[in-house]
Write a structure and sequence with these properties.
The complex is a heterodimer of chains A (1121) and B (275). With 1121 residues, chain A is α+β, with helices and mostly antiparallel strands. In chain A, strand 28 (329-342) and strand 29 form a beta hairpin. Chain B contains nine helices and eight strands. In chain B, the strands form two sheets. Chain B has a five-stranded mixed beta sheet, covered by helices on one side. In chain B, strands 6-8-7 form a three-stranded mixed beta sheet. In chain B, strand 3 and strand 4 form a beta hairpin. In chain B, helix 6 (147-158) packs across helix 7. The two termini of chain B are 35 Å apart. Classes of the chains: A alpha+beta (1121), B alpha/beta (275).
Chain lengths: 1121, 275
């Protein structure tokens, strides 16, 4: 064995032990095949294992250095006047034969070999060397008395003497499995064993080759093997180590890390391991990453911990080091594994859950301990090669991986480790282009089998992205046997069977496990190389593809600069694949290039090797969440496709968080991804879809396109979890918190969801007007049809059942903070005024997150009071998503006088000729209304002193149009007709406040809102984006100036599906903020009373504390037109 | 077979073990322990030393704390040079960890730029990238990028996200297939011994005859003293990212693979160590 190579150990499902050299290409069967093994744990010099008899065995490599143990004993004599030095000792003296201290009786014949694995090298002999110098006289040393200092020369006063006898024994059982026999008390025997792990060689150098050997018995007890070192490779005894529970499995790292798993699913971590105490002192408990699925398997390295939970998910433990062996948190990794094993240099191997292949974690480096991707080891077994020839071993090995293809395929995969790249699982589809011959062949062994196979194979050639794939998977599973059977029977007769390569994602691979076991892996990029013809002349069967049960890399040294040959199959075909895919330029072989690689490697060694324990300057980011969602793909034909989604949240060195959402998808068998910076997301909006729980995500760009990213989850809960997390991240990255400001712009969608946006001063004025597609909207709990607000923070709404609601967030004392701190607080804060309606109430994604974002919080609300009352109303929500959460309190008496509306005022009936459907009040007491017949009315002489005014002025509607909504700003009056035309009232002056004519502004308008700055916002239909058309779009009238009150053009914002907007709170103007009293700016509310039965009732204007004379009012009201 | 991409990774993940100690004259309330950190070679001192600052501020009286600055053996360390460059230039061939002295007083106005916030570093970093692209592509690539791509470059550096950074930086390293390289190579040559901050000239990756220019060609052209042997011995080392590439290395390859994130090749010329 070359010095530079080392071995990976593995056990197949039949208990056969194999090794794979880092310079080799084949699994080699362990030399000693007498036994079948369950588990092995290897280090460089040896391997320990549990055989099928549940006994512990050790396999010590033969090496240049013999394992010798020197036994010694001392012969002691006293001088006797009669016979000189003789065997007769005084009664107080030591034994005639003793150990060096004289305390232990040690006769020559009391020495026996400790186990059958030792042999004596020779007989006992006298050691004539004392202190390195040869002595004469038979090796005696002399002293005055026992115990004392011995000299080699006899003196006059030398009364005692002693000499040392030596005998060497040699460990003979090398390169074989040697059973660890135990001389312990049988009652204490930790028998039978269940798991074993060895490591700890870096804790101390003394004695040479010291190892920590830990084992777990079937009863769940943990045992430590004492005194295992080079010259005592079997150790001496087992010591029982108390544990807080029954242990299933244990893992010991090269240094001081030791973890074990408990039956209950937690992990326990040994603390206090050091050179003086390699057994450690105490245990700490680490909980499983998932509450439902306990930890099943654990493996530790120098400063990493990997785990597998019972659902086979793989986890990486963050923040593990000597000082904190428990680490900080779990990160879920891609892939499902039976077990994982951390070896030298924290490299990781695993056994795939479905295919039982051994995977190597690629890209594990000191800076990226979690690595990049799982890569299947496709090496065949030596035995296969010799038995069936190269072609068969090619098939059995089954993979056409090459490093370089892989790298290219992953070159643009983003982010780190766990989620950045998918597991590549071996899988294949047979393209039975020549089905007839196959069918014929299959019929030899049974028609049914042949037909089924043909069907499966046909299915498998379908695009893996296609949803039909699921069926194919099912079919293949049910017919797995037939399939394999068929291969056996038919391959001989079908030399030209072609293999077509597809890439099947993890999900799919799970669906047809046997195919992946029995056949081949490949990479996505390979498929682009086209099809390969395989002369499948040789017989092969499932048995020839190794299925692994256990792997141990504790002795396997993989460094980044020694290429492994494990990922490609050594055959003529493979090399041709490689030459196809690799373009080796002369530059790559140039000396300067080699020099750079070598020097960089040396630099890393020099600058990093001894300093790995130093803290990293930049904290690595955290993957907050990964998962599988469906994505409405952006190429035709559009449809939902499964994607992997990862939200990466990182904390900048300034402590600020930012997040990126990655969506990984397959495009024509090529892995691709899109990513979105959450600080660019403008809105997350739930999209109701019959079959899917989906939501849309917009950025300014996507708003322009009218083509959001649409994602769907399988369950509502899953969607809400994502929405909550994404919303939180959006708000975090924009530093938005707390309740909406008084100036907020409110809008509702046609589903009744309420969104609020904080206007920036640049929205309405300033040198650089902010496009309204850049507005960030966040959802506020609740469900409304119409919403209105003023700039004092009063927000009212009307629900679909015509109930009026007032927003309590303004005076509720900051509900967001309540939510952020704890659910209890929220409950307390929600006084009786906050009534929750509808049975299906739920936590709202935006308001509903707590600081921990626990989805369980939401159920706090399930039986809030008010439920009864609301169900009585028997309203039919337009969607199942109605939620009344705390920011809203119901005004049950609706539009009746409330204290909120001013001191002591009451509703005064104002007589009208006919029912009104809309009313709006401007900044200067201009009261405008729309009657049911579609005409407009202006109320004369309304003033603070006389809020009811005196009489209605009928104002005819524009010709042939029936009006439906009016909105009055500071001075502007806009109306909307039932055909979607927006009109501006011309000719309004202080002396002629009714105005003169209607000016057409725009068509395709559904709703409008005129604000206190006379800004005009509408909900427009039919807005053409670059990718799609949207109805119900928020639009902003640009170019509105005192001289140009109608504005010039539309700027398009969020949509479609929007129903209503109110900008009546937004009085924030850019630099030229109006400086008069708030009372004057205070716009009256406007309430859309469309198809409301509240005919004839009008809403009084707010009383203002500061009285202004009408004369002044009118002067200020001067309009230049 | 090692991939060129590994060079990018090695360059990116280069770390310098550093020991920060507080300057002896700084007034503290109790003794300041040294602080050990692995500094990313490609980053900037003031970008990655928040922990250091916090550590030392703990032992200082509040009124004594002002802008932090760093010094190595009497030389104030310029935060606007990448850390790897500072190390190569001032401290190669010395024992590790690199011992940096932390100051809070007597800011050396004439030597150092102020760095009051991360925004200053970002501005500097982006300015360098833009300058580099002006040399490489007449600014075409950087100008075609969206603002978020610029942000991604910066965030990639700030958060030590190799993939994130390279997803964008890749575009800055491309060149039209009809050309064999960049227009000009963005490089800066620093000499420890001289007063002049650095040498920067226009240098094309391809000779007029079509052959690739090498590192040696570049040095011969702009800094011949660096490769002139004295008494038959090389008195200098040419160092990039802590290694000495062979002078035969094509400069275009170096620019693509061994530039700092700011897209410049920062080359240090230092005296050969005398054993």
């Amino acid at each position: 064995m070359a010095m530079s190579s080392s071995l990976l150990w593995a056990v197949d499902i039949f208990g056969r032990v194999y090794t794979l050299s880092t310079v080799g290409q084949y699994w080699e069967l362990c030399k000693d095949t007498q036994l079948e093994f369950k588990r092995v744990s290897a280090v460089k010099q040896c391997c320990w294992g549990i055989a099928c008899d549940h006994q512990v065995y050790t396999y010590i490599f033969s090496g240049d250095v013999p394992i010798r143990y020197q036994e010694e004993t001392y012969e002691n004599q006293r001088w006797n006047p009669v016979g000189g030095f003789c065997e007769k000792l005084m009664p107080s003296d030591r034994w005639q034969w003793s150990d060096v201290s004289g305390l232990k009786h040690q006769q020559l014949d009391s020495f026996t070999l400790p186990s059958p694995h030792w042999e004596w090298e020779s007989d006992w002999y006298v050691d004539e060397n004392i202190g390195g110098e040869p002595t004469e006289k038979g090796g005696w040393t002399y002293a005055i008395d026992f115990p004392s200092t011995y000299t080699k020369d006899k003196k006059w006063n030398s009364c005692v003497r002693r000499r040392r006898w030596i005998r060497y024994r040699r460990y003979k059982s090398r390169d074989v499995w040697a059973k660890i026999t135990s001389h312990d008390d049988p009652d204490q025997l930790p028998d039978p064993f269940n798991d074993i792990s060895i490591g700890g060689w870096e804790i101390t150098d003394e004695p040479v080759g010291r190892l920590s050997v830990w084992a777990v018995s079937l009863q769940g007890r943990v045992w430590y093997r004492e005194n295992v070192c080079h010259r005592n490779p079997e150790g001496s005894t087992w010591s029982l180590i108390a544990t807080p529970g029954e242990v299933v499995q244990i893992s010991c790292g090269p240094y001081d890390l030791l973890w074990a798993t408990l039956w209950e699913g937690q992990a326990i971590v040994r603390e206090g391991i050091d050179r003086n105490n390699p057994q450690g002192i105490s245990w700490s408990i680490v909980e499983s990453p998932s509450s439902e699925n306990g930890i099943m398997h654990i493996s530790v390295g120098v400063d990493v911990v990997w785990g597998v939970t019972k659902d086979r998910k793989v986890w990486f433990r963050r923040g593990v080091n000597s000082h904190n062996p428990c680490g900080t948190s779990w990160i879920e990794m891609v892939g499902e594994m039976m077990m994982v094993n951390v070896g030298l240099n924290n490299q990781v191997w695993g056994i795939g859950c479905d295919d039982r292949a051994v995977y190597f974690r690629q890209g594990v480096t000191p800076s990226e301990l979690s690595g990049k991707t799982w890569k299947a080891i496709v090496s065949g077994r030596e035995s296969d090669r010799s038995q069936t020839g190269s072609s068969a071993s090619l098939l059995s090995a089954g993979c056409f991986f090459t490093d370089d293809i892989q790298n290219q395929a992953n070159a643009i995969i983003h982010g780190d480790a766990d989620t950045s790249s998918d597991t590549e699982l071996p899988s294949v589809s047979m393209n039975l282009a020549n089905t007839p011959p196959l069918g014929a062949a299959a019929s030899n062994s049974g028609n049914a089998a042949g037909n089924q196979t043909a069907e499966i194979s046909a299915n498998l050639t379908v695009d893996p992205l296609d949803s039909d794939q699921g069926e194919a998977g099912v079919a293949s599973t049910s017919n797995e046997k037939a399939n394999l059977e068929k291969h056996k029977s038919s391959t001989n007769q079908n030399p030209s069977a072609e293999l077509q390569w597809t890439n099947i994602d993890l999900k799919e691979a799970q669906k047809h496990p046997v195919l992946s076991i029995s056949t081949f892996a490949e990479t996505s990029s390979l498929s682009s190389l086209g099809m390969f013809s395989v002369g499948a002349e040789e017989q092969y069967g499932a048995d020839e593809h190794p299925l692994w049960a256990w792997v141990s890399g504790g002795g396997c040294l993989v460094d980044s600069h020694s290429p492994l040959k494990w990922f490609s199959v050594p055959s003529g075909l493979t090399s041709s694949v490689q030459s196809l895919s690799l373009s080796i330029t002369p530059a790559q072989t140039a000396a300067w290039r080699k020099q750079i690689f070598q020097q960089l490697s040396e630099r890393t060694k020099r600058e990093l090797e001894n300093f790995r324990h130093y803290e990293q300057a930049i904290e690595q980011s955290v993957w907050v969440k990964t998962g599988t969602l469906q994505w409405w793909r952006n190429w035709k034909p559009h449809k939902w496709m499964d994607v992997r989604v990862a939200l990466e949240q990182f904390t900048g060195s300034d402590g600020m968080r930012d997040s990126i959402l990655f969506i990984y998808y397959m495009y024509h068998e090529e892995k691709k991804y899109i990513h979105v910076f959450l600080n660019e997301v403008t809105i997350l909006v739930e999209v109701l879809n019959e079959a899917k729980h989906s939501f849309a995500l917009y950025t300014p760009e996507r708003t322009k396109q009218r083509w959001p990213i649409r994602l769907a989850a399988t369950t509502e809960q899953e969607m809400h979890d994502w929405l909550a997390l994404l919303s939180m991240s959006c708000c975090e990255s924009r530093r938005i918190q707390g309740p909406p400001s008084h100036h907020a712009i409110w809008s509702v969608t046609c589903k009744g969801d309420i969104f609020v946006s904080e206007p920036s001063p640049e929205l309405e004025a300033g040198p650089h007007l902010m496009p309204c597609d850049q507005m960030f909207w966040r959802q506020v709990g609740g469900h409304l049809r119409t919403i209105e607000c003023n700039n004092q923070g009063v927000v009212w709404g009307i629900g679909y059942d015509h109930t009026a609601w007032v927003y309590t967030g303004g005076y509720g004392g900051g509900f967001i903070q309540g939510l952020a701190s704890s659910a209890d607080n929220i409950y307390t804060q929600s006084d009786v005024k906050c009534v929750y309606i509808y049975e299906n109430q739920r936590w709202n994604p935006v308001t509903g997150y707590s600081s921990r974002g626990l989805p369980t919080d939401r159920y706090m609300w399930s039986d809030a009071s008010g439920l009864q009352e609301c169900t009585k109303m028997n309203t039919k929500p337009p969607s199942p998503q109605w939620s009344w959460v705390l920011p809203w309190s119901q005004d049950n008496e609706r539009l009746c006088p409330t204290e909120a509306l001013g001191k002591g005022t009451s509703w005064l009936h104002v007589g009208t000729d006919q029912p009104f459907i809309s009313i709006s009040i401007g900044a200067f007491y201009q009261v405008w209304a729309i009657a049911r017949d579609g005409s407009a009315f202006y109320r004369g002489s309304v003033s603070p002193k006389k809020p009811a005014g005196d009489c209605w002025y009928h104002i005819p509607s524009p010709q042939k149009q029936k009006l439906k909504q009016v909105s009055v700003g500071r001075t502007s009056v806009f109306v909307l007709d039932k055909n979607g035309n927006l009109w501006y009232r011309q000719g309004i002056t202080p002396s002629y406040p009714q105005g003169s004519t209607w000016d057409h502004v725009s068509n395709n308008i559904r709703k409008m809102s005129v604000g206190p700055l006379d800004q005009v916002w509408v909900i427009a239909d039919k807005v053409q984006g670059s990718h799609s058309l949207s109805c119900g779009t928020v639009c902003h009238r640009t170019g509105v100036q005192p001289m140009e009150p109608k504005g010039l053009a539309w700027d398009y914002g969020i949509g479609g599906g929007w129903e209503h907007i109110t900008v009546r709170g937004n009085a924030t103007e850019a630099s030229r903020v109006i400086t008069h009293d708030t009372s004057e700016e205070d716009p009256a509310r406007s309430m859309d009373l469309e198809d409301d039965e509240s005919k004839g009732k009008t809403e009084p204007s707010k009383t203002t504390p500061l009285m202004v004379s009408e004369g002044q009012e009118l002067d200020r009201n001067a309009v230049n037109c | 077979m090692t991939d060129d991409k590994d060079v990018l990774r090695d360059v990116w993940f280069g770390r310098i073990p550093t020991c920060f100690t507080l300057y002896q004259d700084e007034i503290t309330e109790r003794e300041a322990e040294p602080y050990y950190l692995l500094l990313p070679r490609i980053s900037y001192l003031t970008l990655v030393t928040d922990k250091v600052k916090k550590h030392f501020q703990k032992v200082m009286r509040q009124e004594e704390v002002s802008e932090i600055w760093f010094e190595y053996e009497g030389t104030p360390l310029k935060w606007h040079y990448p850390i790897g460059l500072l190390f190569d230039l001032h401290a190669s061939n010395t024992a590790l960890p690199w011992s940096i002295t932390v100051h809070f007083k007597n800011f050396p106005e004439k030597d150092l730029l102020h760095c009051h916030s991360k925004d200053v570093i970002e501005a500097h970093f982006m300015a360098c990238i833009k300058e580099a692209d002006a040399l490489k592509h007449k600014s075409q690539v950087i100008n075609e990028m969206q603002k978020k791509d610029h942000k991604q470059l910066w965030m990639g550096l700030q958060n030590d996200k190799f993939e994130q950074f390279w997803a964008i930086n890749r575009k800055l390293m491309e060149y039209p297939p009809e050309d064999s390289g960049f227009r000009y190579i963005p490089f800066r040559i620093y000499q420890a011994a001289t007063e002049r901050p650095f040498i920067q000239k226009l240098f094309r990756p391809i000779a007029s005859g079509g052959q690739l220019h090498t590192l040696g060609d570049l040095l011969k052209d702009v800094c011949p003293s660096a490769i002139t042997p004295e008494d038959g011995e090389m008195k200098t080392q040419v160092m990039i990212h802590g290694i000495e590439p062979m002078l035969e290395t094509p400069i275009q390859w170096l620019s693509e693979h061994m530039s700092y994130p700011d897209n410049f090749l920062h080359i240090s010329i230092i005296p050969q160590p005398t054993d």
